[in-house]
Every structure is written in C-alpha cells, then in structure tokens.
Design goal:
alpha/beta, 7-stranded parallel sheet, 3-stranded mixed sheet, binds nicotinamide-adenine-dinucleotide, binds thymidine-5'-diphosphate
Length: 339
Amino acid sequence: MTIIVTGGAGFIGSNFIFHMMKAHPEYRIVCLDKLTYAGNLSTLKEVLDKPGFRFVKADICNREAVYRLFEEEHPDVVVNFAAESHVDRSIEDPSVFLQTNIIGTSVLMDACRKYGITRYHQVSTDEVYGDLPLDRPDLFFTEETPLHTSSPYSSSKAGADLLVMAYHRTFGLPVTISRCSNNYGPYQFPEKLIPLMIANCLADKPLPVYGEGLNVRDWLYVEDHCRAIDLIIHEGHVGEVYNVGGHNEMRNIDIVKLICAELSKPESLITHVTDRKGHDLRYAIDPAKIHGELGWVPEMKFQDGIKKTIDWYLTHRDWWEEIISGEYQDYYQKMYGNR
Ligand code: NAD
Ligand code: TYD
C-alpha cells in the first residue's frame, strides 16, 4: 500500500506519518509538502532516511508536479492535510487560504480521478459548522449539522468539503472526510493557543488572551486524531463524513491558567487583548458516529496530554526556538504589537 500524505511536514500530518510508519511498517509513505512557514523538514528528520518513506517538496496547487508524483508512485490512498490552517492569518489575508485549501484540494482530486486511487481522505475541521452558543451546553455538532462558517479559514475548509462530496457524487471518487476538533501535542506551530502560551510562559512574556477568554474549544490529543484517520481510511465507508472529538471542552482562560500552573508562572502574565474578529464562541463535537461505526474512542485524558505536551516543548526547545527566531517575530509584532 502506498499512501501520499500531503502537508506531512506540519503539525498533524507529521504526527500521522509517525503513527502510520509505526502501525503499518510495510506501507510506503510519500509526504508531499510545500514547506510553507508552517512546514518544517526537521520535524521529519527521524524518518527521512527510512526505507519506505519519501519526501517531495511541492505545492498541491501545482498540477504538473502533483500528476508527476502520481505517475511515479501510483498511490492507493491520498490523505490531504495540506492547508493554510490559522484563523488569525486568514483574517489578515484570505487569498492563500482559498488557493491552497480549495484549489489545491481540487488538483489533488483531479489527480486521483486521472490515475485512480482506492481512497481520497480529506482532513477537515469542526469549524465548518460555525459555532454554538455558550449557554446551550446540550448542543453538539453532528455530521448532519449544516455548514455555517465564520472565518475565511473555515469557509475555505467548508468549500473544500463541498467539493470533495461533489467529486464523490459526480465522478464516483471514493472519498471520506473527517472533521476534527482542536488538536494539541508535539510539533504544533507556536502561533496556536497552547504552544504560544507555553513559549511565552517560558520567556516570561505576556500571555495574550483574546477578549475575556471565555470561548470554548473541544481539545483532542493529536495521536487520537491520527488513530481516527487510520481507522477511517481502512474501515470508514466511502462518501461518509466522520466527526472526531474528545468531549473535552475547555475555556481558553482555563487552559492558559493551567499552563501557568504547570510551569509555575504567575497568572499576572495573562493579558487580555482585543478579541479576534468574528470569534467563534464554542465548538463541541458529538463523536457518536465514529464511536458506533468504527469503535473509535479518544485514549488520552486532557490532564495527561497537556502535561505530556508541556514536557515535549520543554525538551524540544531547539525545534521551536529555531522557528520563533525568524519570520515569526514579524508575524508576532504584526498580530500582537498594537492589540
Ligand atoms: P499546519 O499549518 O501545522 O501544517 C500545514 C502543512 O501543510 C505544512 O507542512 C505546510 O507546509 C503544508 N502546506 C501548506 N500549503 C501547502 C500547499 N499549497 N501545498 C503543499 N503543502 C502545503 O496544519 P495542521 O494543524 O497540521 O492541520 C493539518 C490539517 O488538519 C489542515 O487541513 C487543518 O485544516 C486540519 N485541522 C487542524 C486542526 C488543528 O487543531 N490544528 C483541527 C482540525 C482540522
Ligand atoms: P487557535 O489555537 O488559533 O485555534 P482555533 O481558532 O482554530 O480554535 O485558538 C484557540 C482559541 O484560543 C481561540 O478561541 C482563540 C484563542 N486564542 C487566544 O486567546 N490568544 C491567542 O494568542 C491565540 C493564538 C488564540
């Protein structure tokens, strides 16, 4: 079995590659990644020389490069993680989100149609459902919840999902989609909430909480997400969407306080800053379908997962200090300088 993993030099894609190479050592894994600011080849250093692994630097929007790779590798399965993934950046400049997340998805699926595959899997997000009110804890996103997006990021992901379902219906492409809640764990780029707060805590820098910090996210350890995708590509039903989430809702402010406590830093570092435009209030996944059909349950408890994640950032300072030393400083100044 040959699997093309796009976006495999990013956070979830790299964790998925590690998971698959351990769980299915007989598979050939080909990572296709453009290495944008969010992709880092050093993340993959432990697998780069392994037989059965190949890295190819290319843009999923580059039809010629994508078709060439399909001709060389004859993949059975494509798992598409490649995306622009940060909501704040999509508010600054939506265009690259539309290009990669929508056009890139269509190029990959065109290649799948042309060369034939057994499965195209689209890694999507719970953000395509929009948000839930804070005062209705009884409500959850199911696979039937209408798409109702808030940000250019989530709109581009919803656009891609619609296209995936259209390729299934119109061309009979064997597709599946997973819509996951917020992931955390090793190798997450420090622009996202948890690693940003860890890095700032360690530098005794202010911890920029948007608004009051009362927005709620449903957190899932990245390895649990990777196991879910592994299950879906093997046992999931073609044409189906699977929600993936951990019933682990937390307010942002509580996460930040927890990180302060774990690192023995004072809560006085917390700085409330101007809220994100269009900020989604609450995400909450109902994972009953993937549990009932495929037997998936999250294994990592948040109390353990967050400790493991903090430990990872403490022991891999070279990985993220390198990242935040360059272009990231300009990004940080632009986003947080006058907030
Ligand atoms: P990430 O930003 O860490 O990584 C994205 C990767 O895609 C990078 O390696 C980047 O170089 C690559 N990439 C970007 N544009 C590309 C292009 N045009 N061609 C080829 N490669 C390109 O993202 P992530 O957090 O690992 O998210 C992976 C996927 O999971 C995304 O599709 C995202 O929408 C989805 N998702 C993420 C979360 C989360 O909490 N992080 C939750 C649900 C779904
Ligand atoms: P983020 O990690 O960007 O993920 P998403 O927006 O996709 O859920 O943000 C998680 C939550 O944390 C979100 O409600 C916004 C908030 N947040 C802050 O309060 N401060 C920050 O500096 C960042 C990056 C996020």
